[in-house]
Design goal:
The complex is a heterodimer.
Chain A: H1 3-19, H2 24-54, E1 62-70, E2 75-81, H3 83-102, H4 110-129, H5 133-144, H6 146-154, H7 159-186, H8 199-204, H9 209-226, H10 235-242, H11 245-270, H12 272-299, H13 303-324, H14 327-358, H15 369-372, H16 374-387, H17 394-407, H18 412-440, H19 457-475, H20 478-495
Antiparallel strand pairs in A: 1-2
Helix pairs in contact in A: 1-2, 1-4, 2-3, 2-4, 3-4, 3-11, 3-14, 3-19, 4-5, 4-6, 4-11, 5-7, 6-7, 7-9, 7-10, 9-11, 9-12, 10-11, 10-13, 11-12, 11-13, 11-14, 12-13, 12-18, 13-14, 13-17, 13-18, 14-16, 14-17, 14-19, 14-20, 16-18, 16-19, 17-19
Chain B: H1 3-8, H2 10-27, H3 37-52, E1 59-61, E2 66-68, H4 70-89, H5 91-94, H6 97-100, H7 103-122, H8 126-144, H9 151-182, H10 187-193, H11 198-215, H12 222-230, H13 233-257, H14 263-286, H15 291-310, H16 315-346, H17 357-360, H18 362-376, H19 382-396, H20 400-425, H21 440-458, H22 460-469
Antiparallel strand pairs in B: 1-2
The chains are: A mainly alpha, B mainly alpha.
């Protein structure tokens, strides 16, 4: 069997197995085993992929498998990966693994919780391995819909409102997306012949420019909504704040990346001409996302809202980089997706753990937590430093690459926007350090906090996994950045951007 | 009558025979033995379904008044399966003491309307079409008024018959204009000489309005909610699934077969009507608290989606409509099955009664959730594929904006479908519906719809088979 199919099969089998479990202990054990296998598999995939590339395999997609599904519409179950998707799969596997351990003590309807969570992961994995637009769209929606139940049942605060808002806005996004994808399909053979949903085949032709102008906004905004594109980002803070820990982790860490990945892989890759024409509009919007998200985070008092707004800012940076349309920026965008995925998952995991102990998420009510739970405190600081882009951690690698790429545009429009976006780093530092200062340092505000325990083994496992990944990318970014970069080659060729040189920073 | 003639008309002949046999059996049963009617009806109908799947010849009878093709046969098979599920799901309700004495009538009336619909689908001229229409409508009103001791049910029957009479009148006026302008009522002759002269467009519009009543398209939908709410649940599910499905089949057959010259006209008409239907259906469904009314309005919105598929005017359009109806039968019957099982045991039909249902009846809730997701078009269940293909065929004709409006409407509809999911899974209730076990028949019916909802989407052969049969259309 094709190794990629396993990435869908294992989660599905895990959910089926969970259906037979009797109590919470069995349920979480089965989930943990299933997702550990998935993580190991992802690691194996990375090695297999690098092995193939080193052996000189230059095909655009590796491990491809293609089965005709609906012959009359030429819908295939077509899968394959390149360096970009391999990186995203690894990210997903890590975050899901950490998420399972972060929700180790989920005792309310635990079976249903883990089933929905893993179902969501199935959608994400399926999305990243698809090279057929139909299956891609199918998996995209599979990933979105369990969110409703996950937030609605296990969430906190105004959970029903947030769950509904999130679901409807994302489904509204897929409404746009559906039009875009159908349009791409019907113009996938402009000179006659068989219409196709296959990403690679469509990339070989040029969709008529007037259709591109029409379809590009649909596709880009459709994916952009999931990537928290301003002004369609409003689902994100509410959704993240209400979601239970593991769901916030998975959602901010992975699901939002579907937006960035899709915008890049489908919208820009297949319709580069329109992308170049219309990029300025979306660049403006994404710059607003970046700065607005950062400012939004400053004013928040709730830890989850802070992190949710910072996600808007960081994910905005992904779309910003993608729209810069050169190899360095693309590379940065992918790195940023991975870096942000890891670091935001870590943040949400920590917030969940702190909330589980203090029963509040308001930073004003907490203080001096470093003294009572040094482990969680230190990890929080690490996550914060990664977020504000400290060298040696993943955030720096990604953001520097993005800004180098963006700065290659010499005209003042791009320069100004880039400078605006760069300014977000400073703002990020403000809100991160402010939280660290109030939350971890300073006096202990409540005597109850003196008796709080530090992290348990499963919490340590969850957070350490993420910290290792963040540090690994920060210290040795080259393997990842190279893996991505090789796969960017064909994409950059297709988009045929000239006048930019690739800058490898590391 | 040769065997070939029988094969051509097998659905209609079988149904009439079954109805007669049931009446005769009923005469010979003592009041205590009445429940025997159910197994007899079931077995006969299963035979009918199996006969329906025998190889289908193509041909015409009565000098062209009646025709059958493998595609038409397929449509009838699709409807047969739906009717069978409804029969299974009605078991608890029909066994109630107050319904026992008129048990056979339920089946006889249902089979008569079904026979009428099949004559309509198979009609080769407008006379047969109209005969079928009336055969289908009048027993339907009797079905709506089945529990006539309840005011609402009796009211539903009267409303249905009055509005049907009005729509038949409009339709007949259209037919007479068609006859006047072409000198024939045979589909082939009409199709050959039909153009876009003003009178012919007018004739088409009258005809279409008549049909729009049957499918309950906006603005001809006003009877729907009251009739659906007043009728017994199983009859409602019959209306909203079988009757609507059959009417959609007939409409698309006639649009493609008879009025194909007018394609530009009817595409515009359908455009406007489908937008209206989706929007108004959704807006009304948003506010419903009663599950039956809720499903009624949501099924109005669904009819709007069906029109989208029709607009393509191509093989793809035909396939997507039949496929969608098949998926819709399973999804809607899943939903109605749960509503009917709950109503039969507890008598509760309000959405708020469903609060906390998952705690007490997890299986029913899961099926309801699957059905809601399928109706909303969420993958991986079948509804997603059904909707996606409808949209694909609309996009194939270049209606991208319409697709956009439709998907936005699908998103709105997701809201109210999720409200049901929310009630069952999220809301808490002080007195949720207590755990109960339905009888085996009902459970079989629910299981069938669940299997259909899960399997049909992935099982691409179903779509391909319909697609292959749709080839011969043009």
């Amino acid at each position: 069997m094709n190794i990629l199919t396993l990435f869908v099969l294992i989660p599905v089998l895990t959910t089926l197995a969970i259906g037979f479990t009797k109590n919470m202990k069995q349920t979480r054990l089965v989930s943990a085993v299933g997702m550990s296998i998935q993580l190991i598999l992802a690691a194996i995939l990375v090695f297999m992929y690098l092995g193939e590339r080193n052996a000189g395999n230059t095909a655009e997609m590796l491990f491809t498998y293609d089965a005709l599904w609906f012959p009359s519409l030429n819908i295939h179950y077509a899968i394959g990966v390149d360096g970009i998707s391999v990186a995203m799969i690894l990210l997903t596997a890590i975050v899901v693994f950490a998420g399972i351990f972060a929700s180790w003590n989920m005792d309310f309807l635990s079976r249903e919780f883990f089933i929905s969570l893993i179902l969501l992961a199935t959608g994400v994995f399926g999305f990243f391995i698809s090279i057929d637009l139909f299956t891609m769209f199918l998996f995209y929606e599979v990933a979105v819909i369990p969110m409703y139940l996950l937030i609605g049942i296990w969430g906190s605060g105004p959970k029903e409102y947030s769950a509904m808002k999130l679901t409807l806005m994302l489904m509204g996004g897929s409404a746009l997306l559906m039009v875009g994808l159908l349009g791409i399909y019907f113009y996938s053979a402009p000179s006659g012949g068989q219409l196709t949903w296959n990403l690679l085949e469509i990339s070989k032709i040029t969709i008529p420019i007037e259709m591109q102008r029409f379809l590009f906004p649909f596709t880009f905004i459709g994916f952009g909504i999931l990537g928290a594109l301003f002004p369609f980002h409003t689902w994100s803070p509410d959704g993240h704040a209400s979601a239970p820990t593991a769901v916030s982790m998975l959602h901010a860490g992975v699901l939002m990346k579907l937006g960035g990945y899709g915008a890049f892989r489908v919208a820009i890759f297949l319709m580069p001409e329109a992308a170049q024409e219309q990029a300025w509009i979306f660049l403006l919007l994404t710059s607003i996302s970046v700065v607005y998200g950062a400012f939004g985070a400053i004013w928040q008092k709730d830890l989850k809202y802070i992190n949710a707004y910072s996600s808007v800012s960081h994910c905005g940076l992904v779309l910003f980089a993608v729209l810069m349309m050169n190899q360095t920026a693309f590379n940065g965008a992918i790195l940023q997706m991975i870096s942000h995925g890891l670091m935001t998952a870590l943040f949400f995991a920590l917030i969940g753990m702190i909330y589980g102990r203090t029963h509040t998420r308001m930073i004003n009510e907490m203080g001096g937590l470093m003294k009572v739970m040094p482990f969680l405190g230190v990890v929080y600081v690490i996550a914060g430093l990664a977020s504000l882009g400290l060298p040696g951690l993943s955030g720096f690698v990604a953001e520097m690459t993005i800004f180098f790429g963006a700065f290659q545009h010499t005209d003042s429009f791009h320069r100004i926007l880039t400078i605006m976006a760069i300014s977000s780093i400073v703002i990020t530092a403000v809100y991160i350090l402010r939280v660290v200062g109030i939350l971890l340092l300073g006096p202990i505000k409540d005597d109850h906090y003196l008796h709080l325990e530090d992290a348990k083994w499963h919490e340590r496992l969850s957070t350490v996994t993420l910290v290792i990944a963040i540090a690994a990318i920060g210290i040795a970014p080259l393997w990842l950045s190279d893996m991505i970069n090789v796969s960017l080659g064909p994409i950059v060729d297709k988009i045929s951007i000239t006048g930019f040189q690739f800058v490898s920073l590391f | 009558m040769t065997i070939n003639d029988f094969l051509l008309m097998r659905h209609e002949i079988m149904l009439v025979l079954i109805a007669l046999i049931l009446l005769i059996v009923d005469l010979n049963l003592k009041p205590t033995q009445k429940p025997w009617i159910i197994p007899v009806a079931m077995v006969l109908f299963i035979i009918h379904i199996i006969v329906g799947f025998l190889p289908a010849p193509e041909g015409t009878l009565f000098g062209g008044m009646f025709r059958s093709t493998p595609l038409i046969n397929m449509m009838k098979n699709v409807l047969n399966i739906g009717v069978f599920i409804i029969m299974l799901q009605s078991y608890t309700w029909i066994m109630k003491p107050e319904n026992r004495e008129k048990m056979s009538e339920y089946f006889v009336l249902m089979f008569s309307t079904l026979a009428g619909m099949y004559f309509m689908i198979s009609s080769g001229d407008f006379l047969m079409f109209y005969l079928g229409l009336e055969t289908a409508t009048i027993p339907m009103a009797a079905l709506a008024a089945y529990t006539h001791h309840q005011t609402k049910s009796a009211e539903a029957g009267v409303k249905l018959i009055l509005s049907s009479a009005l729509s038949s009148g409009i339709l007949l006026f259209g037919l007479s204009l068609i006859y006047g302008s072409t000198g024939s009522i045979y589909f082939t002759d009409v199709a050959a000489s039909f153009g876009a002269a003003p009178m012919q467009v007018l004739a088409f519009l009258f005809f279409f309005s008549g049909m729009a009543f049957k499918i309950s398209l906006v603005p001809f939908h006003l009877w729907t909610a009251d009739v659906y709410e007043g009728s017994p649940v199983n009859v409602t599910s019959y209306f909203s699934v079988i009757s609507k499905g059959a009417a959609s089949f007939i409409l698309i057959l006639i649009l493609y077969k008879v009025f194909f010259q007018l394609i530009e006209v009817w595409q515009n008409v359908l455009y406007i009507i489908s937008v209206l239907t989706m929007v108004v259906g959704n807006l009304f469904a948003l506010r419903q608290k009663n599950m039956k009314r809720f499903l009624a309005f949501s099924s109005i919105a669904q009819a709007g989606f069906i029109l989208l598929g029709m607009m393509a005017g191509s093989q793809m359009g035909m396939t997507s409509v039949i496929y969608f109806v098949l998926v819709y039968i399973f999804s809607n019957l899943g939903a109605f099955g749960v509503v009917s099982a709950i109503e039969a045991v507890t008598g509760k039909v309000e959405m708020s009664d469903y609060n906390g249902l998952y705690r007490t009846n997890p299986r029913l809730s899961l099926l309801m959730m699957l059905a809601m997701f399928s109706l909303a078009g969420i993958p991986p269940v079948a509804g997603f594929f059904g909707k996606f293909f409808l949209f694909t065929s609309a996009a194939s004709a270049g209606y991208y904006w319409l697709v956009f409006i439709a998907v936005l409407n699908a998103t709105v509809s997701l809201y109210y479908y999720l409200m049901v999911v929310k009630a069952m899974f999220i809301n808490k209730s002080d007195e949720p519906i207590a755990f109960f076990r339905s009888d085996n028949m009902t459970r079989a019916g629910l299981l069938l719809s669940a299997v259909g909802i899960v399997v049909i989407g992935f099982w691409s052969q179903v779509y391909e088979m319909i697609n292959n049969l749709s080839v011969g259309l043009f």
